[in-house]
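In response to reviewer comment 3 from the previous cycle, which asked for concrete evidence that the modeling workflow produces usable outputs, we include below a single protein chain processed end to end. The sequence was submitted unchanged, and the resulting structure tokens are shown without manual editing.
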Amino acid sequence: MKVVEPNQLTEYVGKELGESEWFLIDQARINAFADATLDHQFIHVNPEQAKMTPFGSTIAHGYLTVSLLPYLQTSIDGLVVPKGLKMGMNYGFDKLRFMAPVKVDKRIRARATLMEATERKPGQWLFKLECTVDIEGEDKPALVAEWLVMYFV
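The workflow returned the following structure tokens.
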């Protein structure tokens, strides 16, 4: 992570900030997410039944993949944050598209590009990041999102 002076943030707008480390999506994680969200659809939690679908295996919930963005972004070396950062919080999404399913035992990673950095109020910076979650060995990404994060300095 790069800590930069607030007046330098605009220098990073439009630039890819890097990619995270790969992260394994295993059945235990999928099951734990199903338990947390009460979404036990067979395509996520029943390997035998899921084998008979076009995917051939269980797949992660799309929202599981999205929910990992805060964790994945922590390993993006080029991610910029304003100097004096006290905290950051999710602010929402302008766009979110699920492009391809993440099959069980696949690894994912996030790539981020800073699209906007706007000081909304003194000491409150709203970032818009274009985040793409890649699936190892696949052509299509799992998702593409315009993620909004508010940083407080």
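The mean pLDDT is 97. We consider this sufficient to address the reviewer's concern, and the full set will be provided in the supplementary archive.
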